[in-house]
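Key result, reporting period 2: structure in, sequence out.
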């Protein structure tokens, strides 16, 4: 259905704005995605918003028209409003012209088929939504199966994480679980668990990786707990030639993911 919101006091506007808060997202099972680029990525991955908010009275891109038509055909709502109200909805003065309300799509660990991808990313106690979103984007780039979030990570469906993912929130499977659950599941099948650590002499390029490879990155400040490192099949480190002793967590994950990918791309040596 197509409709219009003209007043700041509209109760739906208040409800959707509340999705910027984690507890309200969890309660509703919904999250926000902002901008035509991300929403087009979502559509191509098979995800449509339940509600599409758009700023009226402006030039509209053909991709937006196609998205609106598909939302309406599938029983969703297209809601037209002003730029001022959209700014209130998004919490930004320079708000995007389109915002979508999507059903969250986390995956249960038991539903993961590890054989569908050679690389899986695993993050433990990741706190920064920008890092989490960047890891999703990296996973998409290397053809990873998804991102497994261990322990108390930041919400992958926050506006900040969704924005940083650049649409990869819709292409990567997302699992949230505890460490013990993950290890029980992992050891029930194939999978090499590779942790990044300073407590090893194994260079990340000298190591041998096997598929499916689970690349484990620890918390931004503390890294991996010692007992978690002890349960890895392999610990590797990247050389640091400057004064810093470690890379940003998302950057380190990307470096590791591409090294593993490159090893898998090379022809087997006789």
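The corresponding designed sequence is given below.
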């Amino acid at each position: 259905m197509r409709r219009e919101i003209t007043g700041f006091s509209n109760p739906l506007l208040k409800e959707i704005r509340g999705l910027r808060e984690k507890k309200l997202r969890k309660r509703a099972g919904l999250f926000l995605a902002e901008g035509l680029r991300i929403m087009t990525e979502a559509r191509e991955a098979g995800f449509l918003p339940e509600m599409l908010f758009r700023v009226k009275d402006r030039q509209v891109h053909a991709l937006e028209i196609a998205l609106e038509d598909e939302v309406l055909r599938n029983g969703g709502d297209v809601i037209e409003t002003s730029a001022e109200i959209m700014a209130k909805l998004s919490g930004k003065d320079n708000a995007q012209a389109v915002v979508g309300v999507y059903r969250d799509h986390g995956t249960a660990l038991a539903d993961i088929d590890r054989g569908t991808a050679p690389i899986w990313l695993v993050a433990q106690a990741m706190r920064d939504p920008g890092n989490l979103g960047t890891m999703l984007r990296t996973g998409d780039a290397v053809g990873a199966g998804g991102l497994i979030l261990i322990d108390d990570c930041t919400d992958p469906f926050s506006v900040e994480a969704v924005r940083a993912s650049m649409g990869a929130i819709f292409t990567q499977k997302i699992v949230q679980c505890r460490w013990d659950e993950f290890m029980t599941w992992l050891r029930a099948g194939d999978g090499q668990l590779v942790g990044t650590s300073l407590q090893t002499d194994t260079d990340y390029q000298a190591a041998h990786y096997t598929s499916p490879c689970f690349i484990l990155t620890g918390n931004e400040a503390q890294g991996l707990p010692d007992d978690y490192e002890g349960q890895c099949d392999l610990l590797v480190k990247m050389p640091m030639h400057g004064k810093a002793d470690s890379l940003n967590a998302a950057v380190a994950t990307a470096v590791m993911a591409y090294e593993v990918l490159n090893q898998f791309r090379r022809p087997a040596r006789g």
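The radius of gyration is 21 Å. The first strand starts at residue 2 and ends at 4. This case is discussed further under Risks and Mitigation.
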